[in-house]
Every structure is written in C-alpha cells, then in structure tokens.
Write a structure and sequence with these properties.
The complex is a heterodimer of chains A (158) and B (516).
Chain A: H1 9-19, H2 26-37, H3 42-52, H4 56-65, E1 77-82, H5 85-88, H6 92-103, E2 116-121, E3 133-135, E4 138-140, H7 145-157
Parallel strand pairs in A: 1-2
Antiparallel strand pairs in A: 1-3, 3-4
Helix pairs in contact in A: 1-2, 1-3, 3-4
Chain B: E1 2-5, H1 10-14, H2 17-30, E2 35-38, E3 52-56, E4 59-63, H3 71-76, E5 88-91, H4 96-99, H5 117-122, H6 127-135, H7 137-147, H8 159-168, E6 175-180, H9 189-196, H10 198-212, E7 216-221, H11 226-241, E8 257-262, H12 272-279, E9 303-307, H13 308-320, H14 322-326, E10 329-330, E11 333-334, E12 336-343, E13 349-354, H15 359-366, E14 376-381, E15 388-390, H16 400-405, E16 414-419, H17 424-438, H18 444-461, H19 466-483, H20 487-491, H21 493-502, H22 509-515
Parallel strand pairs in B: 1-2, 6-7, 6-9, 7-8, 12-16
Antiparallel strand pairs in B: 1-3, 3-4, 4-5, 10-11, 12-13, 14-15, 14-16
Classes of the chains: A alpha+beta (158), B alpha/beta (516).
C-alpha cells in the first residue's frame, strides 16, 4: 500500500482500543491494522492478544487463517488476478502464467523493486466479463496481456 | 434537467463506468447542458455495460456498451432526447432480454437510485416491513413459509422453517446474520442486489428481526467486493438517517440495527458455521451440526443465517403475499431464480426467471452461446463445487430436484459456460486444488482428500496406472462426499465426478498419446 504508516505499539493500541466496543472485534481490528501499516506486524498481534485476553498462539492462529492478512509488508501496489472457473473459461490460467513468466514472478511474490505484489484471487464477481483482475481495489473486466503489462509499468513508474 | 443513469455496479465500473460518468458530466458542462447523473445498479445486461440510460418521455433509452470515446458522438446524436446512435438499444424495458424475464427480487435493481430512500419508497420499498409490523411475528413466519422460499446459497433449505425455529426459541438475545460471502465463481447476484438495491436487504433483515425477536443484524461480506462495501455501508447510514433502522423504527416500538462486517479472503467462511466463527473473531473453522445455528448460533445465541437473495426477496413476499410467490415456479422449486450467466458466453448477465426453464434454453438462447463462437462443451452449474453438465443433458429443467436426480446441483443459480477447448481433467484438478487451498483443515476427508486428489489426478495426467488411479480418485471422492463435515469437502467431488462421468476421454488422453 502506498503511504503506509510506520508501525508503533502505541498506534496499534489506539487502533485496537477504538474497536473494543464491537462484538467479536478481531477481524475489524486486523483490517484496520493492515489498512494503517500495510501489514499486520507480529508486535501488533501481541498487543491484540493482550487486549482480547487470549493467548498469543490463539491470536496467531486467527491471523494466519485468513488469506488477506500478511505478516510482512507487500509491494506498494497489489494486483489480484482471478483464477476461478469463469475466468479460466476465457483463458485466464494461460494468460496469468504467461504474465508471471514475463515478469519472472510466482504467485504471492513482489517485484524486486518493491512496486507490485501479484496475488491470485478466486472470483471477483465479474464473471460476465472474464477474465478479471483487481488493481489496488480497482476492478478491471476483460483483462488482457497488454493491460497486465501496463499495470506493471504504472506501478513501477510511481 | 435531463436525468442520466450510469451504473455504479462493480462490473460496470470494471468496464469503465466511473470514467464514463466523469466524461459525461464534463461534456455536458462544456456544452451548457443541464444533466443530473444518477449512479444506479445494473440492469443485468452485463455485456452492454457500461449502459447509459437517458430519461425521455418515451421511457428510459439505453446506450451501451459506452466508452469515454463515445461521449462526444452521443451528445452530437442528441442522446439527451433519445436520439439515434450506433450504441442505442432503444427503450430498455422493451429490450428482449428484459421482456423475457420475471423480475421479482431484482425488480428495482438498475431502476432506482440505490442510495435514495425516497426513490426506494417511491418504488414500493418498505411496504413489506409496514405490513410485517401490522400482522406480527407468527403471521410473518407463516407467510414466508407458505411462499415456499428456499435458501439461495446452494442448499435450498426452506427459509420459513429456519425462521420458525429461531422465533420459537425463548426470548432473549438473538441475531440475524446475512451471508454475503459470495465466493463462488460464476455468481454475482448478491453483489448486484447489494449495489443496486441495498435497502431491500436492509428491509428484509428488519422484517426477519421483527419476526424472530432480534435487535441486531450482521452482514458478512467478502473482502473481494470493495465496491459493495462502500455502497452498502452508505445504504445503512441512509436507512438510519431516515428512521428505518435504529430505535423505535417508525413508531413501531421495535429497535433494530445492521452492521457490515468484512471477511478476509477465506472461501470456507461462506459455510454458515464457519462464517459465525469468523464473525466471532476466530479462525473460520466449521462447527459440527447439531446444534443448528438456529438454536446455538452467533455468540451461542439463536441465529437466522440467510443468503442475501433470500433475505432481499422477503419484503416483496410480505408486500405481495405468499401466494403470489408460491404460484411461480415448478414442483418444490417455488418462485423465481436469478440466473447468473457467466464464463464463455455472448450475453452474460443476470436473468431472473421462474424455475423450470431448460438448461439448453438458458445457454444457447438467452446467453447466445459462446463468446468465442466455438461449440459449448460443458456448463458448470452452481459454483466451483457444482457439477459439469454436458450438452447431452441440456433438456434438464432448472429446478432443485431435477438437477439432484442427475447428481448435479443448481446451487445459487450461477452458470459458467465452457467451449470445446476446455480440458476437463484440468478442471477436475483445479476443483481439488481449490478445495485443498481453501479447506479449513478441521476434518480429514476434506483436508487430506483434496491434496491426495490433486496428486492422483496428476498421476492420471502423466499416464501412470490410469485406470487404477481413476478408481482411487472415485474412492477419494466417495470418502470426501460422505465423510466431510461441511459442504466444502462434501461437494468438491461434484465437479470431479461429473468430469469423470461425462468426459471420460479427457482422463485417458495421456494413455492414448503414449500409445500413439
């Protein structure tokens, strides 16, 4: 994420405290932490365990269960490419594999300059416009090789 | 002032609707034209998105798919008064795709401004809730039961029975939970209704809360739908501001509020018990049933968990009466089904129709066949855990029981069409791989079975003991089907077994190639 804030325990505690009035606050807190810092640092997991009065192991178990949360910073931009059936019916699998080969990347990897992380996603609900992708939260329908390459160029250019 | 509609629907945005709306506003200003741009939901004719609609005395005239580069020529052609243009589809309501439908759940979607309470009310919104307040809890539950409404998430469980179970529990804290974790490929109906008519879902939840005695409702939405999150959150606030949520709703003495929660990319959280675990802030691991969530649900309290579409259909059932809905459909599949037509098709989109329409009519006629122009090979119906149906079964009527009789399921009504270039062995492998990635890990058949499934299919691919490994694969499928705790492991065999049954040649290609 562009412009993610530097991590501090104090800020993490503020974010956690702001959500403690909710029923079952863990996921909202994790989303808020990741929105603020770009990832969920281990120190923040420790703070959460204390606040929620559960063991660190249990908290770790929650964080690692969900694909969305990551424990180290990602690239400044994120490209999610759909691999689900509908997109596969329009050749998404080959298109994605060719793209990854061109960029010398594997799924979940970040370009060496730290500009872009590429992740698989299993359905964006854009199945009438397959194949589809999501770039920093912006949906793209009927994506082709040229568009994917433009995204890399744009991510690197910033 | 001319009213122009440009959808905010995520699929329309993915095809450039935001840029189009900005370009239309700019061009209108440059030409000194007074226009009001309403960001509506989608009509469901997704191949035409972004579809611009202009209000004229003759009705709403549509132009699509419109790109930024078309804007100047649209103005030149006088589209503000419905002028002729290459992109014109005429009056939208008269379009053949629209005219063939029977829109019930989706009647307002694409028509109204989704974030205007006044517009919603002008189109019969909140009439169902008003009637609910008049007739009371028992009569509401009775009405929903008599309508024959069934879950739209896949299992097709009767909604009325669920509600009655919770309503009959002792008074105290109860919850309404809406499952908006629409993770299946080829489905987007939940997304469309939440973007195009979010107040109908809020109204349905309030009716449910009133019927069962709950004061709090949660909507659990998947994180892959960022546009929905924005629109739905705004809709909650609009409803609250207008007094349709909160304390003493419209003087009824009933308090109810709705909270939106976002998931975190775990497919299994679409399963109702794992969804509840996730809402509670835990790992999204499935619970053994019983106890049913109706008895021991969210935070251990009695809970109704419904799919978005079932809940959004309730207001209309209350407004028009159970009989009106029950008279539609076929057999035990009452009412309408919003079909989601996707994949390799010419005319993809959302088509709501009574149950009972033959599969072949949907694929060849309504969807217009494949986008690539090649012959259809298979249709996966009901999501990644649904069966692949071959062309030879195209006379199957769209109805829960008819599909079940052929070892298939209609699930939530999503259809993904494939042309003859698809390799069914590969799709079977993908089905197992997906299950392995997304398994919550609690039960062995799902966790280990899916991984062994991938390995076994790879052996078949490599031509290694093909017949023996096909038998092993069938055995694995059987174990997963009958030994798994929830539908993820239990249904993952459907795509694999159907691929094996209907497309056996795709599993023996390696052996054939080796023999040549």
């Amino acid at each position: 994420m562009a412009g993610a804030a530097q991590y501090s325990d104090e800020r993490a505690r503020e974010i956690i405290a702001a959500h403690m009035g909710l029923e079952g606050p863990a996921l909202p807190i994790l989303h808020a932490l990741q929105a603020e810092f770009g990832y969920v640092p281990d120190s923040a997991v420790k703070e959460m365990a204390t606040a929620l009065n559960i063991s660190r192991a249990e908290m770790h178990g929650v964080v690692t269960f969900y694909h969305d949360f990551h424990s180290a910073p990602h690239g400044r931009h994120t490209l999610k490419i759909c691999r689900a059936e509908s997109c596969q019916s329009m050749g998404a699998e080959k298109q994605a594999n060719d793209f990854l080969a061109r960029q010398k990347l594997e799924w979940h990897q970040t370009t060496p300059d730290g500009s872009l992380t590429v992740e698989p996603v299993y359905c964006l609900g854009l199945c009438a416009h397959s194949p589809a992708a999501l770039y920093d939260g912006e949906p793209i329908g009927q994506v082709d090789a040229a568009t994917l390459d433009e995204i890399v160029a744009e991510a690197k250019g910033e | 002032m001319t009213k122009i509609y440009i959808p905010l629907d995520m699929a329309a945005v993915a095809m450039g609707a935001d840029r189009l709306a900005a370009a239309v506003a700019k061009e209108a200003a440059a030409r000194g034209q007074q226009v009001e741009i309403v960001r509506n939901g989608s009509r469901g004719m997704l191949w035409l998105e972004p579809l611009i609609e202009v209000e004229t005395p003759a009705g709403r005239v549509g132009y699509g798919p419109a790109k930024v580069k078309d804007v100047a020529s649209l103005f030149d052609a006088g589209f503000l008064t419905g002028g002729a243009h290459a992109l014109s589809i005429g009056v939208v309501e008269e379009h053949p795709w629209m005219k063939r439908q029977n829109r019930f759940t989706f009647v307002r979607c694409g028509v109204i401004d989704p974030l205007s309470v006044a517009d919603y009310e002008a189109h019969d919104g909140f009439k169902g809730l008003k009637r609910a307040f008049e007739i009371g809890s028992a009569a509401i539950v009775d009405e929903v039961a008599k309508s024959g409404l069934r879950g739209r998430g896949g299992a097709g469980f009767p909604t009325g029975i669920k509600w009655k179970t919770v309503a009959d529990c002792a008074p105290g804290q109860k919850y309404v939970v809406v499952n908006a974790d629409e993770g299946d490929s080829g489905t987007f109906a939940d997304r469309m209704i939440m973007e195009g008519d979010p107040l109908s879902l809020i109204e349905g939840m309030t009716i449910c809360g009133y019927a069962i005695g709950a004061s709090k409702g949660y909507v659990y939405l998947r994180s892959e739908y960022p546009v929905v999150a924005k629109v739905f959150q705004a809709a909650i606030e609009k409803a609250r501001d207008a007094g349709w949520l909160g304390q003493n709703i419209k003087g009824s003495g009933f308090d109810f509020d709705v909270e939106l929660r976002i998931g975190a990319g775990a497919y299994v959280c679409g399963e109702e018990t794992s969804l509840l675990e996730s809402l509670e802030g835990k790992r999204g691991i499935v619970r053994a049933k019983p106890p049913l969530p109706a008895h021991v649900g969210l935070f251990g309290k009695p809970t109704v968990v419904n799919n978005v579409l079932s809940m959004a259909t309730v207001p209309m059932i209350l407004e028009k009466g159970a009989k009106h809905y029950a008279d539609l459909g076929v057999g035990r599949s009452r009412g309408t089904m919003p079909l989601q037509i996707a994949g390799n098709v010419k005319f993809g989109g959302l088509f709501e129709t009574d149950f009972g329409i033959p599969l072949g009519t949907i694929v060849n006629d309504i969807a217009g066949g494949t986008r690539t122009g090649r012959p259809v090979k298979a249709v996966q119906v009901g999501g990644p855990l649904g069966a692949y149906v071959p062309v030879s079964l195209f006379d199957l009527p769209f109805d829960y029981e008819a599909f079940a009789a052929k070892d298939s399921l209609i699930g939530h009504g999503g259809l993904v069409v494939f042309d003859d270039t698809i390799d069914m062995l590969w799709m079977a492998r993908f089905g197992m791989e997906f299950c392995a990635i997304e398994s919550c890990g609690k039960c062995t058949p799902c966790r280990i079975g899916s991984t062994r499934g991938v390995e076994t299919i790879d052996k078949i691919r490599n031509g290694q003991d093909v017949e023996k490994n096909i038998e092993l694969l069938k055995d694995l499928c059987h174990t997963m089907k009958f030994g798994s705790l929830c539908a993820l492991g239990g249904f993952a065999p459907y795509p694999v077994e159907s691929a094996l049954r209907h497309f056996p040649e795709d599993f023996r290609k390696s052996a054939l190639e080796a023999a040549e």
